[in-house]
Design goal:
Elements (H helix, E strand, L loop, with lengths): L12 E2 L10 E6 L5 H11 L9 E6 L10 H10 L35 H7 L3 E9 L3 H7 L8 H10 L4 E5 L15 H7 L3 E3 L2 H6 L5 E4 L19 H12 L6 E6 L2 H7 L3 H25 L2 E6 L3 E2 L3 E2 L13 H9 L5 H4 L10 H9 L6 H9 L5 H12 L2 E2 L5 E2 L3 E6 L6 E6 H12 L3 H8 L1 E2 H7 L3 E4 L3 E6 L2 E6 L4 E4 L2 E4 L5 E2 L4 E3 L1 H6 L2
Parallel strand pairs: 2-8, 2-9, 3-15, 4-5, 4-8, 5-7, 6-7
Antiparallel strand pairs: 1-15, 3-14, 9-14, 10-13, 11-12, 16-23, 17-18, 18-19, 19-20, 20-21, 22-23
């Protein structure tokens, strides 16, 4: 039995304006780790309103089952499944729920996989897709398309994603498809092609693809910040969103699409305001793409919401304590306008010995007054961490404050668009986002969970079968019947014949869960 969640003081309010147009499609866009001041900063930098601005409809509480400040894995799980979870857990229930108002987790439900809105949409014959600027098996995209109580288990997560029947997957992470990038030695690129995907690696190939099944990888690991992006090698988040909508909208039954602006979070961890501005604005262009489609389509809901704040970003810092109300806008924006790259992009401009620090910082960051300590810090910065060094340097010159290098626990803004006016309002829980999306699409998440994630050992033995399992496969025998079920795939072998299931076989490190369809194969 799945656990319920008590959301003390919150309610899923909606404006049920009378419009009988059925909702067939939902697009959720997640700017990971985007604090409220990040949108204000990006708006001032841009000099005009954001596409997001017209969609603001409420606020969202972001805590997880076990902590007031959420990690991306349980935060995304809440958006995807409607259930709170534990730090690091992807698409599964927690093993404990210690936050006020949370119900006790039964022993049978601990770490149990639960269906996402994406999986429920797929069961309803809708097309589905995920997009991220991080690796595709990173926490947020994995939350919608895989299940495992450890976000670091890239092998288990990516295997499920490949075999979970999505129609579009776009983002970074190509190295994790190849044997040399995996602990299990599997070649998932071969699998992707054998499953009928058009596999593309360039913006031009993405644009030219006419396939109904599209897998695009544009970087070995995460994609570049938008400000650093080479447009001939990597598409923008808006371009990926546009292509995904083009492919998915061919299905007359509708679609579900998740789009993540992943590196807003990474910039916030580094206290890098240039990375924040870069990818908040790129994310907003993707929102505009989705919103334009929804307004012309008349049966599409668009949701945009971050999973948590990050960095404690403020416009104003300790240096403006006595002058905050006298500082002109130029104090905060002009130093940022001088930057031509993010801190990550800047790293490629230094020579081998980093003896050209002053020249590079002047040309690409507009900073000509580096202190000796700042020069030394840049020269000694570890590879891959330059944004952690130069982010605070430019922040100090722009009056930008930070309270932490980690996540924060405040409420975040909920942005929604619905052609029929049915939008959540007030302060809601992050689990309510999934419940809202499921409701407008007519999906029953609990029913799909029961359909896709049956405890395998108990169910097979109840049919009189012999059950054997290790970390890679289940083997079930009953009389002359032999059923082999590889972990994390939807392909099983019954008496030597391959059969495709409507969901993947999930192993959570201690127990297997399989679709009811697999149980029904044994007579």
């Amino acid at each position: 039995m799945l656990v319920g969640v008590v959301n003390a003081g919150t309610a899923l309010a909606a404006d049920n304006t009378t419009n009988t147009t059925p909702i067939k499609n939902v697009i959720i866009l997640i700017p990971d780790g985007m604090a409220n001041d990040a949108t204000a900063l990006a708006r001032w930098y841009k000099g005009s309103s954001l596409a997001l601005d017209s969609m603001a409809s409420g606020m969202v509480r972001t805590h997880s089952a076990d902590a007031p400040i959420a990690d991306s894995a349980p935060a995304g799980t809440a958006f995807a499944t409607g259930h709170k979870s534990h730090t690091g857990y992807v698409g599964v229930l927690p093993d404990e729920a210690t936050m006020p108002g949370e119900m006790t987790i039964s022993a049978a439900d601990r770490k149990k996989p639960v269906a996402s809105v994406l999986e429920a949409a797929k069961v309803a014959d809708k097309s589905t897709g995920i997009i991220s600027t991080s690796e595709f098996m990173h926490a947020t995209p994995a939350d919608f398309s895989a299940h495992y109580p450890d976000r670091k288990n890239y092998d288990a997560l990516s295997m499920q994603q490949v075999y979970n029947g999505m129609d579009v997957v776009l983002g970074g992470g190509s190295k994790f498809l190849l044997p040399e990038g995996r602990k299990d030695g599997q070649n998932l690129l071969t699998s992707i092609k054998s499953l009928g995907y058009d596999y593309v690696t360039t913006p031009e190939a993405l644009k030219q693809s006419t396939s109904n099944k599209l897998w695009g990888m544009f970087a070995p690991e995460a994609m570049s910040y938008d400000m650093d992006r080479d447009s001939s090698k990597q598409p923008s988040l808006a371009e990926m969103t546009s292509k995904a909508i083009q492919v998915l909208s061919k299905n007359e039954k509708g679609f579900f699409l998740m789009v993540e602006g992943s590196k807003v979070d990474w910039a916030a961890h580094a206290n890098d305001p240039i990375g924040i501005i870069s990818d908040v604005l790129a994310f907003d262009e993707a929102v505009k793409t989705a919103l334009d489609f929804a307004k012309s389509n008349s049966n599409t809901v668009v949701v945009a919401v971050t999973d948590h704040g990050n960095g404690g970003l403020t416009i104003g810092n300790k240096s403006t304590t006595g002058s905050y109300d006298k500082e002109p806008l130029s104090t905060f924006i002009d130093p940022l306008k001088k930057a031509k790259l993010t801190g990550e992009g800047l790293e490629t401009k230094f020579n081998k010995g980093r003896s050209n620090v002053k020249e590079v910082m002047a040309e690409y960051f507009g900073i000509t007054d580096l202190t000796a300590e700042e020069v030394k810090a840049i020269q000694e910065s570890k590879s891959g961490s330059m944004n952690y060094t130069v982010g605070p340097i430019i922040s100090a010159r722009a009056g930008i404050g930070w309270t932490t290098g980690g996540h924060t626990g405040g409420d975040v803004v909920l942005y929604t668009y619905a052609p029929n006016g049915d939008r959540p309002t007030g302060v809601i829980d992050n689990t309510d986002v999934a419940k809202y999306m499921a409701r407008v699409l007519g999906l029953d998440l609990n029913k799909v969970s029961q359909q896709l994630f049956v405890p395998a050992k108990q169910a097979f033995e109840a049919k009189g079968a012999t059950f054997k399992a290790d970390a890679s496969q289940i083997t079930v025998t009953k009389g002359s019947q032999k059923l082999e079920l590889p972990a994390y795939k939807n392909q099983v072998i019954l008496n030597g014949k391959r059969i495709d299931l409507n969901g993947v076989v999930v192993y959570n490190g201690s127990e297997y869960f399989v679709p009811q369809q697999a149980i029904d194969l044994l007579k």
